[in-house]
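Q: Sequence in, structure out?
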Amino acid sequence: MSYELFYNHPAREWNEALPLGSGRLGVTVWGSPEEDVLQLNEETLWDGGFDPEADNPDCAAHLPEIRAAIFSGDYAEGQRLTQKYMVCRGDGSHSGHGFGYRYGSFQTAGDILVAFTDRRGEPSGYKRTLNLETGLCRTVWNDGSRAHEVRILASYKRGGMAAEYRASEPFSARIRFRREDGGAETASYAPDGFAYEKAFPDSLAFAVCASVRAEGGCVTADADGIELKNVTSFRITADVRTTYVKPGMDGTPRPSNDPAPATGKARETAESMAERDFDDLLRESAGILSSFMDRVKLNLSPADPSLASLPTDERILRMREGGSDTDLLLTYFAFGRYLLVSSSFNCVLPANLQGVWTPDFDTIWSADYHININLQMNYWLAETCRMPELTEPLLDYIRFLSLHGRRTADIQYGGARGWVAHTITNPWGFTAPGEGAGWGSFMCAGAWCCQHILERYRYSGDAEVLRENYDILRGASEFFLDYLTEDPRTGYLVTCPSNSPENSFITDQGRFGVCAGPTMDNEILRMLFTSTADAARTLSMDEEFADLLDKTAARLSPIRVGKHGQIMEWSEDFDEAEPGHRHVSHLFALHPDCAVTREHTPELFEAAKVTLRRRLENGGGHTGWSRAWVSTFFARLGDGNACLNSLNLLLGRSTLPNMFDTHPPFQIDGNFGGANVFAEMLLQSQSGKLVLLPALPDDADWQTGSFVGLAARGGVAADCRWENGRVTDYRIYAVTPAARGKTFTVTVNGIDETVTAE
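A: Exactly. Output:
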């Protein structure tokens, strides 16, 4: 099966445009036969900058009175004091609209517009495609007797983009650059290309440069654009560069406000790509993409062949109306992997809330890094689908957070050791609490990020991963050794104040988000402490610290079952203000952790089912990323039928016409989390065993199939074939040197077998 998105009309809005990416560079293609739009992004194109005043030194002195209020049950006073003292100073994220503020916003670089100026009537035979295995976006149409073809790529090898416009007979067009942000800057045009520069006040500068090469005809330029008359073809090669430099702990060095260096780099890329044949650029870029995409393959029974002739947007609409489409699901699985390569390959920063694609200046939620699930969800499939190189920008960013989080631990929490990061963060090192106590005081967000270090070790089996990152794990643990306090009501150690991400509970005083010891905090910290202790022992170091972590973990509140048979979300058995809330934070121990399992914690396993059922019965899973997480929960619960139904809902209700996930609006974590669900349905290894087909649906299309290359913890991958829902053949093989010759327990059709990795 070839994985391709297909449309029979041009994009009418950005949510219909097709995404290309080189990792650093993002391009969305509209494919219009009248005026084509190539909208550009670059991963570091943010305004704003480091904010040395964000951490609040008044917080630590008031922690005792905040805690006293909460422990006495006066949640109104506890929340009032937390809002007064335990939020950042200044505007913070400015309610998710950081554009023009110190927090900043990820934003568009602008649009390259290609207008066809000698059209011969209404176009016919229109088709627009995106091949997910080559990264080529292709548009064809006819106007009269003239056939047009447009091919566009973002080069993983070169970093820039290339667009080739051809026709069977001479044609004319006009190229211009547009960036409508209210600034006075304009592009400078010449017959062989254009350049655009902009500098943000007290922030970075950036540049867009393009080279234009034509065959035949005449090319001229004026102050408003580039005119091409009677050409047979032309190519645009372009790049976007910024002067972004990650700030040190004190905010220096600051990025240069001079766009000249960015212009030089962008021009160099555009001109060097212009010297190369388009097919050569495509061949080398497609080779890189396919090296990732070919690592994992999934084949299922043939679906209705008549669906293959339907455009992608019509197939999505059909699913919205309740139809099923197995081939579209497989395309969605490929699309998620394609997007991760396209927004994380060879990058400085990890994929943000919108990957590397936004048409906006004031992007919703600033397209920042929400680390109370969203950034984490972006990278789950990097491990399960054997793309570990793509975690490098994430791990580098976690180190960056840990450095800035030391400042926050010291200033915000009165000299606490280690490091801490809260709900929101950005490329400038913002680690303070957010501006709203009810959501922004979640201080276990950075600790959750540490799980990606641990999973990178578990999937690779390489102790060097632990050695290189042990200081980050230890620093995160040290902060909580200082921050935890004893709850006088229970004797357990708790975080206080904190919150269960973005959710709130009801007491006789009203509705509140601030509390002591929410279940998710306990689950994350138990994971962090025990894993850091294990890491220390694996590395034969820090034995006393490891012992202290084990003792501290034992004093955390256990996961408890509440009055509805559900896992309690808070330390008291409160009811939720929103029973169908999008976050299901208290199931962290089910996924992405593995402390709740059928074998070892059967009571909690059943309570997790109740928790999930209650959320969904009350409207939960209504955002794309939430539905993706719900689907993963079902996979961990071994419920393949519910898992497939949830995936169908994800595509039908939370997928835009161009297959981007919608919160709403567009938010890419659902694409990444949804792709990971397929891997979790077919292979799980979190229990220490490799379980084949742990959540296979009863649906006929899924009863016979095969997969190749899914990853398991321990440095191995698996291939598997099955018929009538039962494994008929499988293979376990090493993908890292540490795994070769190791033995693994594999659960096959419910029976455990011992296998040596090939």
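The longest strand covers residues 161-178.
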